[in-house]
Design a protein that fits this description.
8-stranded mixed β-sheet, 13 helices, alpha/beta
Length: 361
């Protein structure tokens, strides 16, 4: 019988590519000896986080898995008519290029003056926020970006509402800002995607599994207007994660000579693990992030399950003992504070066939 362990989760955003994270969580929830501490999330990662938390609040891992399925199925079904696609998480007309053109020509206050938001209905139909606030066994850090300052606002479990989820997934080119307590908020990916520093410095659980959706790099030089826009979006939404990793690296380097004190002291000894779906999502057309196609989403779900299965096989026994991913060395080559970490490459093992999509920079 294996020892029971607990781990935090950090879930990156990525639109419809968040279905990869759905697959990772679906597989992890099958492991009865692994429980979950805190979940830090932004954008699509937030949708996965609240779906999972709502199921666990009912006291059932199977309920959490079913909740995740129902939400992603609803994302797909709500992908038909017109205004149902004007949400940052569900957006995209039948032709993604049409939506991209609209977003560059008009603001959402012009092409969607009533602020129609299908994600509100979808989330409220599947998530009991009162139950999460009172009975969820996991703490939550849901990131949204404060419009006036650009700083991250982290909504905790006890204050979580549907507005916080909508704020975390509010892409300003496609949807009205979400107002909470008199302040306007945009997508959390602009400021924390997801927040690692708060999670690692405050959670009593010493291990965090980061589930990445966005590719870390792209060696193809973008030259068309569309490819440049896609590439700048990737850089923008990866920047907060890189900032957090730089902070963690700096604290660890300092710890080599002077033991850090205060709020960030825990970063020096926190153990990080990573399941990186960038190799899977990077092979898809970037526009699939805004088109909730069921074939693509089920492919990503299968890829996420396979990646999680491989990660568990290689690293399950290291949880609570050893860090299995060299954050500094992988994100900033030439800088390493670990001896011999190993990375589990993401990728499907025959569970689902890759849909026919074109690769773009």
């Amino acid at each position: 019988m294996r020892n029971k362990v607990k781990i935090n989760l950090a879930l990156q955003g990525g639109g419809a590519h968040g279905a990869y994270t759905w697959g990772v969580l679906d597989r992890l929830l099958e492991e009865p000896d692994i429980s979950f501490g805190w979940i830090s999330a932004a954008s699509a990662g937030t949708v996965n986080a609240v779906a999972m938390a709502a199921g666990l609040a009912h006291g059932s891992r199977d309920r959490a898995r079913a909740n995740l399925f129902k939400i992603w199925e609803a994302v797909h079904k709500s992908g038909v008519p017109d205004l149902a696609k004007l949400n940052p998480f569900l957006n995209g007309f039948s032709r993604p290029a049409s939506m991209a053109q609209i977003a560059t020509m008009w603001s959402p206050y012009e092409f969607n003056p009533l602020g129609f938001d299908p994600l509100r209905r979808l989330i409220t139909d599947h998530v009991d926020f009162e139950l999460i606030r009172t009975k969820s066994p996991v703490e939550l850090l849901i990131a949204a970006t404060h419009v006036s300052t650009g700083r991250a606002r982290l909504f905790r479990r006890h204050e979580l509402t549907v507005e916080a989820v909508l704020a975390s997934a509010c892409l300003p080119t496609l949807h009205h800002a979400v107002e909470i307590e008199g302040a306007a908020y945009w997508d959390g990916g602009y400021s924390a995607n997801p927040d690692l520093v708060t999670l690692a410095s405050e959670s009593p659980v010493g291990d965090t599994l980061l589930v990445m959706v966005s590719p870390r790099d792209n060696n193809l030089l973008p030259t068309t207007a569309r490819d440049i826009a896609n590439h700048t979006n990737r850089l923008t939404f990866n920047a907060p994660l890189l900032r957090d990793i730089e902070i963690i690296t700096a604290v660890r380097e300092t710890a080599g000579s002077i033991m850090p004190k205060g709020r960030l002291a825990g970063l020096a000894r926190h153990r990080f693990h990573v399941i990186d779906g960038g190799g899977v999502t990077g092979a898809l057309n970037p526009e699939t992030t805004i088109k909730p196609d069921w074939n693509v989403m089920t492919y990503l779900h299968g890829a996420g399950r396979d990646s999680a299965d491989k990660w568990l096989s290689a690293n399950r026994d290291e949880i609570g003992r050893t860090e299995t991913f060299d954050l500094a060395g992988q994100f900033f080559p030439g800088i390493s504070v670990n001896d011999s970490p190993h990375v589990i490459a993401a990728g499907p093992r025959g569970r689902a066939k890759k849909p026919a999509t074109s690769k773009r920079a």
